[in-house]
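Researcher: Let's try something more involved. This one mixes different molecule types, so please make sure each is placed in the same coordinate frame as the others.
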Amino acid sequence: MAQPQTITLAVPDVSCEHCVKTVSGALNEQPSVQDVNVDLDTKTVSFAYDPQQVSLDTLEAVLDEAGYTVAK
Ligand SMILES: [Cu+2]
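Model: All components are placed in one shared frame. Result:
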């Protein structure tokens, strides 16, 4: 596996443990994604992924579909 990228995204709509589970679950279903961590205080999600297996655009779309649009 190539060098994993670690990234932190702002997801302002996370507000409770249910959101944490939804976001984590959606990301964990994607290829190569690991170490998902949702921070309710800062409303961010950080994780590692392999850009050769899944693009960041795809991961942002997954979050969007789950109801948590990534803030730019
Ligand atoms: Cu919630």
